[in-house]
Design brief:
By secondary structure, the chain is an alpha+beta fold. Helices cover about 40% and strands about 30% of the residues. It has ten helices and 14 strands. The strands form two sheets. Strands 6, 7, 8, 9, 10, 11, 12, 13 and 14 form a nine-stranded mixed beta sheet that branches. A five-stranded antiparallel beta sheet has the order 2-1-5-4-3. Strand 13 and strand 14 form a beta hairpin.
Length: about 350
């Protein structure tokens, strides 16, 4: 057994605060220097609940540890208290063990703060990733985007056959010069947004817009045997949308559309300001057909007449000379109106 003076010195020197309290009246019988350093009023004879702020007599019972706060040199410490029962010569005592857990709590708070910051940063990254994904999906089909995401590049791919729809507005330059640019661009954005919905509805992929020119392709990136029908339905729906819009809006938008079929090559062009684009005779032919169309007219290649004649009104074929293609058979396509029965 340790000598009594040695035990007293050990109790005084350890970093754990120790306090002996009379179980009957909670009067302090002994407190080591560590305990008194945290609770200076807990000297011998004082009642512990009155010496320790936030401590009442009900908590001075054996059980789970609990925490109180005290201020030492303008710093608030968190002290963990554990109450045990002891007996000395038949006199019940309470042994209070106190430990400074301030650093532990500060560390826990810091970890919580870092975890919250990581969560916030993760959400920011997810939001940025979603925005980047939406941006990239605006300039390339999803399958191309997934290929780019997986391999970091997109291999040029031949798509054969597809149908290319090229739309251009009549008199846009004059309208843009005469009207408020903000209004003009706002209306153009409104119309192109509607065109995107129409293209998606009919299985067409919008490839790009160049100024007031809108280009979409049917049969890409997934093959579609009815690509010509999809492009024609898309074109007719776009014209119908413009007709209805013109009836209620101040600006009158009139478009020309050309549709041509054939092979195209699709790939991502560029390294930094990259964009998905398609190239091939069908693209150029659709552009030429669009340029010779009358306002609000859809011009198609003569080769598409056979596959579309059952669904649309198609004019007799005629021959036109297209730059780069020579003499080409073409026709005009329009929506087939329902037959109205005449009353006898």
């Amino acid at each position: 057994m340790f000598p009594e003076d040695l035990s007293a010195r050990l109790i005084k020197s350890i970093g754990v605060g120790v306090c002996l309290v009379d179980a009957a009246d909670h009067a302090v019988l002994f407190a080591n220097p560590t305990f008194l350093g945290w609770f200076p009023d807990a000297c011998a004879g004082a009642r512990l609940p009155e010496a320790v702020a936030g401590l009442d007599g009900a908590r001075l019972a054996p059980g789970a540890p609990f925490e109180v706060q005290t201020k030492v040199k303008r710093r608030t410490l968190v002290i963990d208290l554990q109450v045990r029962v002891a007996d000395h010569d038949g006199r019940p005592l309470l042994v209070i063990e106190a430990q400074n857990v301030s650093r532990l709590r500060e560390t826990e708070a810091m970890i919580d703060s870092y975890a919250a910051m990581v969560d916030r940063r993760t959400r920011d990254l997810e939001r940025e990733k979603t925005q980047v994904e939406k941006l990239l999906l605006n300039i390339m089909p999803r399958s191309v985007y997934e290929e780019y995401l997986t391999f970091g590049c997109v291999a040029p791919r031949l798509f054969e056959p597809v149908s290319v729809l090229m739309l251009d507005f009549v008199g846009f330059t004059e309208m843009a010069a005469a009207a408020d640019p903000t209004v003009t661009v706002g209306e153009l954005n409104d119309i192109f947004t509607a065109f995107d919905r129409i293209a998606e509805r009919f299985g067409c992929e919008r490839i790009k817009t160049i100024g007031d020119c809108y280009m979409a392709v049917a049969g890409l990136p997934h093959a579609n045997p009815d690509h010509a029908l999809a492009a024609a339905r898309c074109a007719v729906k776009m014209m119908r949308y413009l007709d209805r819009r013109n009836a209620t809006h101040q600006h009158r938008w009139r478009a020309r559309i050309g549709i041509a079929s054939g092979p195209v090559v699709g790939s991502v062009v560029g390294i930094q300001k990259y964009v998905y684009d398609v190239f091939g005779p069908a693209v150029n032919r659709a552009s030429r057909l669009q340029s010779i169309s009358e306002p609000m007219e859809i011009t198609i290649c003569g080769t598409l007449v056979g596959s579309l004649i059952d669904y649309f009104e198609i004019s007799p074929q005629r021959t036109e000379t297209l730059r780069g293609f020579g003499e080409v058979s073409i026709a005009t396509l329009s929506e087939r109106r329902p037959v109205t029965s005449l009353a006898s």
